[in-house]
Amino acid sequence: MSELQAPHLALGVDIGATSIKAATVSLNGELVQRFHQPSPRSLQDLQEFIRATHEQLREPICGIGIGCRGLIDAPSTRINRIPSDL
């Protein structure tokens, strides 16, 4: 019987004002794959981007991190405020 190996990749997602980007990276920080498209305009669009990205991955992942600079207005799905760069 073969021993199962734990996934050694993570998915990072960056939601920007004009585009959304994602990348898989190894646990030591090496870039494996990249993904890019215009920013989602709804929660469903965001979910679909993540779902489609996940389906394209070559290997299983151990986690997903999502980042967005600013405060998002949920009803409009737009960035409402961006904190200053202090």
Strand order of the largest sheet: 3-2-1-4
How many domain modules?
1
- What would CATH call the architecture? 2-Layer Sandwich
Rg over C-alpha atoms, rounded to the nearest angstrom = 15 Å
SSE pattern: EEEHEEE
Count of DSSP H/I helices: 1
Helix proportion = 10-25%
Strand content: 35-45%
Tell me what the structure shows:
- The protein is an alpha+beta fold and 86 residues long.
- It has one domain: ATPase, nucleotide binding domain (Nucleotidyltransferase, domain 5, 2-Layer Sandwich), CATH 3.30.420.40.
- It is 16% helix and 42% strand.
- The chain has 1 helix and 6 strands, in the order E-E-E-H-E-E-E.
- It has one helix at residues 43-56, and strands at residues 9-15, 19-26, 31-38, 63-68, 71-73, 78-81.
- The strands form 2 sheets. Strands 3-2-1-4 form a 4-stranded mixed β-sheet, covered by helices on one side. Strands 5-6 form a two-stranded antiparallel ribbon.
Question: Topology of this structure?
Answer:
Blueprint (H helix, E strand, L loop, with lengths): L8 E7 L3 E8 L4 E8 L4 H14 L6 E6 L2 E3 L4 E4 L5
Parallel strand pairs: 1-4
Antiparallel strand pairs: 1-2, 2-3, 5-6
State the main characteristics.
Nucleotidyltransferase, domain 5, single chain, elongated, 86 residues, alpha+beta, four-stranded mixed beta sheet
How would you concisely characterize the structure shown here?
The chain is α+β, with helices and mostly antiparallel strands and 86 residues long.
